[in-house]
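stage 2 :: seqdesign
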């Protein structure tokens, strides 16, 4: 276990701002996690705490977090079940997400290839219900193993208990802050069905001159993401900043009257999902800045730190951008990024 006081978090979140934590703890096992949690009933009683993964979905709005920051170093992947059709893969919450994707593709196991290059770790995948290019991780999860913060007891959640929805889970709602994910088990296909008709995946495969396969789909999606998304080491960012809004079909038809080219995708309950990046771009914000924070010039869904920006500056930019979308389209867009004060 690693414990530090007055710890710099600059390398622990992808916006790259200089932020410190009063206490930082990294644990490498369930036993160590339980030991840490016992401190919240002792020396750290009443102190705020925050559990982070790779920090790719966080925006610190002050320069010091006056509590305890926890990080999982529980790693490892193992096959825990298998039949003629599927493989069940159990992974530690601290496994880097894209390492899991690369491993699955190399083994010929399908399901996660469309989620290639999403930043973050396994634990966050189950909390955030990460998704991209027509795939959501909730459709692949078999179970989520957790530890209760209050009592240190193990509890396993089945997908039906996780209240999964678009970029949502029970761990972001009713059970927020009450459980910490330690392991996630995914069910992967031995005879995968490829999803290449979302976004421009098929077009990229054609440009590459390759037939669809697990490997080529992964490469295509990596190409697309690398082209659109800035490297956080160069421009601090948290990837997609806003959740794509899901609206009624009547709202979409209203928009199509003035913008016939509006892209949209079918969602649940007969509604449709409109890309937030497209809405922002139509408002003229792509490539524009507000102080030291800006909307990325290649992908309007991404807000970037031009250098020296504070969390408050990024928050203000997001507020102005969301206001422009509301004024122009009468659609509210909401941050996918978590604001931490």
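stage 2 :: out
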């Amino acid at each position: 276990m690693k414990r530090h006081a007055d710890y710099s978090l600059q390398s622990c979140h992808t916006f790259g701002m200089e932020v410190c934590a009063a206490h930082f703890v990294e644990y490498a096992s369930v036993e160590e996690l339980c030991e840490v949690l016992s401190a919240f009933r002792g020396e750290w009683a009443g102190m705020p705490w925050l559990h982070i993964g790779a920090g790719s979905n966080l925006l610190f709005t002050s320069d010091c977090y006056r509590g305890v920051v926890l990080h999982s170093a529980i790693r490892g992947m193992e096959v825990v079940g298998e039949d003629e059709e599927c493989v069940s893969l159990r992974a530690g919450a601290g496994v880097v997400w894209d390492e899991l994707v690369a491993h699955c593709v190399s083994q010929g196991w399908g399901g996660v290839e469309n989620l290639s290059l999403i930043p973050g770790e396994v634990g966050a995948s189950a909390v955030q219900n990460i998704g991209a290019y027509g795939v959501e991780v909730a459709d692949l999860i078999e179970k989520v193993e957790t530890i209760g913060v209050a009592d240190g007891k193990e509890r396993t959640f089945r997908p039906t208990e996780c209240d999964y929805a678009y970029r949502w889970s029970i761990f972001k709602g009713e059970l927020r802050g009450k459980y910490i994910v330690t392991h996630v088990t995914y069910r992967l296909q031995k005879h995968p069905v490829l999803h290449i008709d979302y976004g421009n995946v098929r077009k990229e495969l054609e440009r590459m001159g390759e037939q669809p396969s697990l490997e080529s789909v992964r490469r295509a999606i990596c190409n697309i993401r690398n082209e659109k998304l800035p490297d956080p080491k160069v421009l601090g960012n948290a990837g997609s900043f806003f959740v794509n809004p899901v609206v009624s079909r009547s709202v979409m038809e209203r928009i199509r009257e003035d913008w016939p080219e509006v892209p949209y995708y079918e969602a649940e309950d007969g509604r449709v999902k409109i890309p937030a990046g497209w809405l922002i771009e139509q408002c003229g914000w792509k490539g524009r800045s507000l102080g030291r924070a800006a909307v990325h010039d290649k992908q309007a869904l991404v807000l970037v730190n031009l250098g020296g920006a504070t969390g408050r500056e990024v928050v203000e930019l997001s507020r102005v951008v969301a206001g422009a979308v509301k004024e122009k389209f009468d659609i509210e867009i909401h941050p996918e990024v978590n604001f931490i004060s």
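stage 3 :: structure notes
- The radius of gyration is 20 Å.
- Helices lie at 30-39, 97-107, 122-128, 201-208, 214-228, 249-258, 276-282, 311-329.
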